[in-house]
Amino acid sequence: MPTQISTPQPLEPGTLRVIPVGGLGEIGRNMTVYEFDGKLLIVDAGVLFPEEHQPGVDLILPDFGPIRDRLDDVLGVVLTHGHEDHIGAVPYLLKLKADIPLIGSTLTLALVEAKLKEHRIKPYTLVVQEDQTEQLGPFHLEFVAVNHSIPDALAVAITTPAGRVLHTGDFKMDQLPLDDRITDLRAFARLGEQGVDLFLPDSTNADVPGFTAPERDIGPVLENVISRARKKVVVASFSSHVHRVQQVLDAAAATNRKVAFMGRSMIRNMNIAAELGYLRVPDDVLIDTKKAKNVPDDQIVYMSTGSQGEPMAVLARMANLEHQIEIGEGDTVILASSLIPGNENAVYRVIDGLTKLGAKVVHKGNAKVHVSGHASAGELLYCYNILRPRNVLPVHGEHRHLYANADLAIQTGVPPRNVILGQDGIVVDLKDGVASVAGQLDIGYVYVDGSTVGEITDADLKDRRVLAEEGFISIFCAVDFTTGQCVVGPEIQSRGFAEDDSVFDDVRPQIAKAIAEAAANGTRDAHAFSQVVRRTVGRWVNTKHRRRPMIVPVVIEA
Amino acid sequence: MPTQISTPQPLEPGTLRVIPVGGLGEIGRNMTVYEFDGKLLIVDAGVLFPEEHQPGVDLILPDFGPIRDRLDDVLGVVLTHGHEDHIGAVPYLLKLKADIPLIGSTLTLALVEAKLKEHRIKPYTLVVQEDQTEQLGPFHLEFVAVNHSIPDALAVAITTPAGRVLHTGDFKMDQLPLDDRITDLRAFARLGEQGVDLFLPDSTNADVPGFTAPERDIGPVLENVISRARKKVVVASFSSHVHRVQQVLDAAAATNRKVAFMGRSMIRNMNIAAELGYLRVPDDVLIDTKKAKNVPDDQIVYMSTGSQGEPMAVLARMANLEHQIEIGEGDTVILASSLIPGNENAVYRVIDGLTKLGAKVVHKGNAKVHVSGHASAGELLYCYNILRPRNVLPVHGEHRHLYANADLAIQTGVPPRNVILGQDGIVVDLKDGVASVAGQLDIGYVYVDGSTVGEITDADLKDRRVLAEEGFISIFCAVDFTTGQCVVGPEIQSRGFAEDDSVFDDVRPQIAKAIAEAAANGTRDAHAFSQVVRRTVGRWVNTKHRRRPMIVPVVIEA
Question: Where is substrate bound in this sequence (chains A, B) (predicted)?
Fold first, then answer.
């Protein structure tokens, strides 16, 4: 499936166009654009977190390219739930046009609004809930309750004259969730009977056989671990996982401990969740972090962020003894969280640090303290059989997840030709129950670094990778272009290459000689002299050191 | 357990000194130095593979510091088995003194000799086998068969007048191994009855509950997957895993397929293993890689390297369509290997690439195609109970593994004060059945980068990390130190910072102005002018871009 960029034909009347601009081929930056009759509807606008081959990048945004010139046509952004990979790009979208309405559940919008406040944006919002319907221009929206690792998640059915689409957002099918709010399979069945022309399901766990275990299984494990703890307990989890925090609060209450929230996002999100009634705080359990130090060690639980080993978060700072809460012999630390691939080294470094300080570290590798938020293969089969969709476009996953999900669809009887495997920027047109690929847009990664958005390019990241692997050598010479004499320099600077600058002593005369020779042979311009310097230093470093640092020559006319 | 460097007292007569210079706090660079009566014995000399916070590093060696000035006292190096983390540093050790004898089993020495040949070193060797005893100066050595993920692994019991030490090397306790060579618990029992004063056990899987599954379980799964494959099959594994390759050969024979070895180390190691009789090649199964292209797709298995996603290995090149064997629709790729933490992103990138090309990818996440080579907690408990060691020094593991192993020892009745938790460079003295910590040496990481050993320092790696995160800006000016006028420059070069050099247009005059002001205020030396440039650019980049690139100012007198 190599990428063949092909510009789609203009949209025919009566046709729905679907363009996932993020989330196909990656877990993150989910964003799908729907177009009908000249109007646009967006579902989700999330961020992707960088991997180690994208050094120094803070966030990766979806490519707004396909809608940048059509912002006035956007009728709204439906946000399925409040996770960063679905809402994190909203501030950057609203910076382009502040009055695009946001549509979502109470908790989702509350979390987005708190985030937008930090960017000084006050959005237009429309609060919706399950079973509610809304008409937005040509788009008829019906919201359906789904269960996920954050409360108040919604799927959305989008109906236009071209047909009906069901977009699940992230979901799983815990049949006994803490808040009794299950994924509404009755609604799925009804939509299926009415006919689902295109189904866009979450693929994250499509390659995991069986069923995701219930969240409820974790409570007794937490209570058991906490009841056996002799001293302080620290629990780390995602700062939006209201139900996980609920179970920690309940376990603390059952074992007569107080709970203090740690970390800015944990405190902010749990305040919102408690205020709105999603988090039920048992009486007298919560105490302020500042007062927690006065509570005896065997009566306190710290609920913190940093479960992914993030270096600046509470947990990593504790592991390095850089936090006011000092971890020591007999303390217990619970990582009630997944281990997102790519974070292993960071997480294990934190676990090792805490272990060395004497703490007992409990994590999903040695106890059942985490379950996933996504439907496994077994659950997805239920969905396909209840919905019987005409066409399927698996979304939200790396390619192996999308393929696994496609395979499940086909196993339940969806004809293989009706299952579309795509990547970011694929253009799918739906009309009269037929979905077809109409083109493939060229979709890029948009890197946020510091206060800059999109200034860092893939070429810069390639430079950074070379710099990281090998360091650099920069050479400056001011040259008399006629004689080829170095009037100033060669001045050599290097970083990440060698401790001792004397390694360059033997190459300086080689550089001067090469420049003089080039001049004798008629070279007269700065660029050509730079190339001479680059080749001379490159050959020297390769022969003598078997290394390939970045070589940055600067030659100017003296 | 913060590191307190403390030089040990000179060694008392009749005392055995044990110094693990690598492998405590990391999985890799295993090396332990034993000293008695002025003579040294080394067990293993392995390498550690770098993590992403050590960019550009090829290998990490043990710190030879503690033995560097005493190479004439080294009586030999016992190599427990032929894995890189136990033998990889041997060439670097022999470069210091080529005639140190190597002691190990037939296969282990054959693998080391092949490696040394590439470094043009012909070593002195002593081949030993299980149940054999040797006297090396004051060290009485007894070798014991152990089972591991490479054949012919040995534990070694080291007896001196100070007592008896059992050093396991890597091992597990598969009770039905392919070669019927089990870990010799009868020998462990006999040693236990004679008295083991200090036990140094492999800790890698000490935090994994239960028992490591038998290697034999994998064969039927491989055969099943291969028999159902419609087209080409590629199996990737470690190039030294003779038994895994054996099972692939057997499965290929059973399904009427030929096998071609791919990758330099795979071909070299399997030739050695077959020649020495460790690999039994079924008749007419093996064919030359060059001829494999003429075999129909449904009759071939490629056995390759690259199971950890290494970018230059066969599998990654296949995933990028950069290899002569083209992966396509209907092919099957089996990763019959572990997923070493830290390699997840690389491995998943390969799996994703292969999936996009149409291959079915089978790995330990979706089928039982790998078992570990190390004893889990359940097996270690057997060892402790059979040996009943007086003192325990867990080795070969990150800190959480060492702690878990210590915990197992204590559970079986070893007094906690007799269980030593240490890190690289800990000095343990043994006399009259009492083991005590005598000091802590300062042990560093020795980085191999290209042809250089130890030239790259932690400071260079820190520079590289900054370069990777932010890139650099270098500024050159030739200044008239009296007037403060920039005669040449400011010339600005940057990499990894911004695509467009025009971003620097507004800072150049700021630099010139700052230099002129400094000169007016009496600054007259190059270093002080450089600091002025650094501050000016640093303030500009932080205020305007919220970034922190490395700033490299060069000011010289015009």
Answer: 239-241, 370-374
